[in-house]
Prior knowledge:
64% of the residues lie in helices and 0% in strands. By secondary structure, the chain is mostly helical.
Amino acid sequence: MAKIALGTAAEAAKPDVIQALVVEFITTFLFVFAGVGSAITADKLGADALVGLFAIAVAHALVVAVMISAGHISGGHLNPAVTLGLLVGGHITVIRSILYWIDQLLAAAAASALLQYLTGGLSVPAITLASGVGPVEGIIWEIILTFSLLFSVYATMVDPKKGALGGLGPTLVGFVVGANILAGGAFSGAAMNPARAFGPALVSGNWTDHWVYWVGPLIGGALAGFIYENFFIDRSRVLVPQDEENY
């Protein structure tokens, strides 16, 4: 059973943590900028619904793959649900997780605000449930999609037995994000990420269904982290620091 480490407040002043927070802010900012930007572009060009969804899925898949790789100093979480999933698995302390969550939310808000300014005040689309999809269905969608994301993170990046998959981890996780958007984008919005939902909601002032994008992803992320870490990883042969923020 993985042990969750609390950590100390002194972590916030450590040079390596400060460096990790700067990198996490930059990579999360660029992820949200590209992701939300692709949605704004699809709206501006009046793309067919399916074409627009495909373009948004591809944009998210590409930027996730690159930003996870670029964010190796912080672990490239980009997502409070990913951070929670790794916290449950004992890979990051509670204190550092809280710092990451604040960092990710600020980055998402900054990226969304800048996009609104750079596009001349165009609407920044908030993620909401589709017509006919209720909160319960939305939460289940987000639990499953985020579980898929975190399960992939663990299988291709965290698991010591990943072998040759290690170098492909970020790309494979990006593929999962793109596939999940194609699967659930027309129903729950396929956020899989509270920060990705928070930035546009804050800037647009549209908080409709917003709580769904906290409950669903956090449950899905925590569940995947708990199951994979405790049932599929044998830590008896591998020593992993409990306060390590990277994958």
